[in-house]
Specification:
The protein is α/β, with parallel strands linked by helices. Helices cover about 35% and strands about 15% of the residues. It has a seven-stranded mixed sheet, with helices on both faces. Strands 1-2-3-15 form a four-stranded mixed sheet. Helix 10 packs parallel to helix 12.
Length: about 400
């Protein structure tokens, strides 16, 4: 709260945001990685208007509606391994909370004592209590540390430590008391876009599967094209048992989260014994307006126009990464699909609270670019529809900032 600079935004159009004084900004982080088609997309807007005229909301207990059915059907066709059961919520943290509850109750319903959860070091899975429990323990969660459940952590795999990581994973699961392994596939977002190899993740997941550990892929940030495929899990040979989605799920137009699983998990809850039901719900579960936004988003993602935009963006990000990766101010420039992270050299060391973050944020804001650095890591994740001219302007400001450093 103290010292925060607030910019009142009154309009969004395409890749631009406009403040109350008429100044425009390029949204280079897609408003926290959600606006993949830019602001006020007319196609999505038209579909929302159509839906509002038909049905804006209905209780999702004992009722359903066409758009919820369409979302379930379309997602199940593009997600891996017959994920045809869906649970609606309203954000990424809640989607992960539901996934954790689902995994733990899956074993409880069968009378099997599996309670432990494994996650990666530096993980971030949300700010709810379950999400904090499986995330890195930091100042984010310190005030609540005594209320969080225990989680076992393994290092993020690298070429140098993969053998050690696999041995540790095997050691943690060998007693058959681990309920779930939750992970951000290929890219750890809030940690600073830390990236790792799909093959390494596949080896870890294979060990988990060998010991009947449920695998939860947190695709809240990585889903819907950002990593170069529809989902990051598409690049991993071993598939998850549960997937969580939010952020770009509705192209950032409405608040929605989903947790999807396969029949084998669903069947553990399907019983005449009501105590085995999944007793969880939200007022806005399955909101028709949000579901309409999902369907419109999928329409756009399936179009040749957006596929071309995404491919072009990835090429431009690659070209720029190569041009600055040897700059004296750059510790590392890393990329996964359309995600570009530039880690800056600093005497403080890398971290979320690095003083370079606020300085960089203000620097870019003054020049008409919205960038939300994660400490000393600059993140460039614009909407797919950004044109080469506007992206070039962003790159020019980044070069200028690097040169000043």
């Amino acid at each position: 709260m103290k010292g925060a600079h607030i910019t009142p935004i009154v309009k969004g159009e395409g890749v631009f945001l406009y403040d109350e004084d008429g100044k425009k900004y390029i949204d280079a982080v897609s408003s926290w990685w959600v606006k993949i088609h830019g602001h006020s997309n007319p196609y999505i807007g038209s579909k929302l208007a159509e839906q509002f005229a038909e049905l804006d909301h209905v209780i999702f207990a004992g009722f359903t509606h066409p758009k919820a059915v369409e979302v379930a059907d379309r997602l199940s066709k593009i997600l891996p391994d017959e994920m045809n059961k869906i649970f609606f919520s309203d954000n990424g943290s809640t989607a992960n909370e539901i996934a954790l509850k689902m995994a733990l109750q899956f074993w409880h319903n069968q009378g099997i004592d599996k309670r432990k959860v494994i996650a990666f070091e530096g993980a971030y899975h949300g700010d709810t209590f379950g999400g904090m429990s499986v995330s890195a323990r930091t100042t984010f969660s310190d005030p609540f540390s005594h209320h969080l459940f225990e989680t076992q952590y393994i290092p993020t795999p690298t070429k140098e430590n993969i053998g050690e990581v696999l041995n540790l994973m095997t050691d943690l699961v060998k007693d058959n008391d681990v309920a779930a392994f939750i992970y951000e596939p290929l890219v750890q977002g809030v940690r600073g876009m830390v990236m790792y190899e799909a093959d390494y993740l596949g080896e870890i997941l294979k060990i988990a599967k060998d010991y009947d550990v449920l695998c939860i892929a947190d695709e809240v940030m990585t889903g819907f094209g950002r990593t170069g495929t529809m989902f990051a899990s598409d690049q991993v040979e071993v598939k998850p048992d549960i997937v969580t989605l939010s952020k770009a799920l509705t192209a950032g137009v409405m608040a929605l989260g989903v947790t999807m699983c396969n029949d084998s998990i669903y069947d553990a809850f399907y019983s005449d014994d009501k105590s085995k039901a999944f007793l969880h719900g939200h007022s806005f579960t399955g909101n028709p307006m949000a579901c309409a936004a999902v369907c419109a988003n999928l329409d756009l993602l399936e179009s040749e126009k957006v596929k071309s935009e995404l491919s072009g963006l990835i090429d431009l990000q690659t070209e720029f990464r190569k041009s600055i990766q040897d700059h004296d101010a750059v510790a590392e420039a890393r990329q996964q699909g359309a995600i570009l992270a530039i880690e800056l050299i600093t005497s403080e060391g890398s971290g979320y609270y690095n003083d370079l973050g606020p300085k960089a944020y203000q620097y870019f804001l003054e020049r008409g670019v919205v960038m939300r650095p994660l400490g000393n890591v600059l993140i460039i994740m614009p909407p797919y529809c950004i044109n080469e001219k506007d992206l070039s302007y962003v790159y020019t400001q980044v070069r200028s900032f690097l040169n000043e450093l």
